[in-house]
């Protein structure tokens, strides 16, 4: 007999004008948790000496999102302005590498990302086509430094939320189920998880863990650090229990020869990364590490939503375009 996995029935989030009174109350609660979370985390980064950069929406250089096994982009938005082709921001990774190398050693950005995900991702509950990353980078930092920073930030956030947002968490039935995580989070190697769980390791891992965990050694885009001798990647994802990936990050490549080799290997268009390549050749790209936290996913986990677009005032569900 074959066993069939049951796909949970997910109701797709509606636009503001279509909500019932109880749905509006829920939306307002989630909105308060988003506000609290933004204030708490941006405060933590500012207090830790990070500079707050404002985002850009159009650039020649943006995240290739390739080759990332998790990426599923239906369309890339490119327009010409002033006679030059620009793309909408998929992530500000290239900006972070250059900015942290040159003028802002510790930086963060609340960065709106546009990724036109395939419409079939509407019901994963984890994908939206516009979202915001709390994207940060620190010159000379190691993966361990980033683990410590993120673990402290998450523990501080959940502790404060449980103290200050009891009413909202109770309305959302999360008061008892959300637990303050403990340091240090376990670290798993992606290869071991694949051996244990097979191709669907992400879903299985999210369902099986009781506490947040790190996953390392994930082959993906050229800017994450890869040890050419061992073949291991010094990068990481943070997985939250009963939810899944909420953050991706890495120690970064800074050496010209490696960056160039990997861009060629990935068959990514060199002309889109010519400034990064030039600066790396001049030795101006400095070692760094960082990560991006998906704000809708983080708040979605805190609020216990079925679909992360519930955390958006103006939902961006793949395949659906509302008026607002
Ligand atoms: P990435 O580096 O591509 O993994 O993106 C960084 C973080 O942004 C992820 O860990 C997610 O929290 C979030 N993210 C990425 N893609 C999406 C999406 N389509 N919808 C919502 N959040 C996303
Ligand atoms: Mg990721």
Structural category = alpha+beta
Characterize the main sheet.
8 strands, mixed
- Output mean pLDDT: 96
CATH topology call: BirA Bifunctional Protein, domain 2
Q: Provide the helix percentage.
A: 25-40%
Please give the CATH architecture: 2-Layer Sandwich
Shape summary: globular
Tally of separate helices: 9
Low-confidence runs (pLDDT<50, min 5 residues)?
none
CATH superfamily: Bira Bifunctional Protein, Domain 2
What is the H/E order? HEEEEEHEEEHHEHHEEEHHEH
Distance between the termini: 48 Å
Radius of gyration: 20 Å
Report the β-strand fraction as a percent range: 15-25%
Give a quick summary of the entry.
With 324 residues, this protein is α+β, with helices and mostly antiparallel strands. Helices cover 34% and strands 21% of the residues.
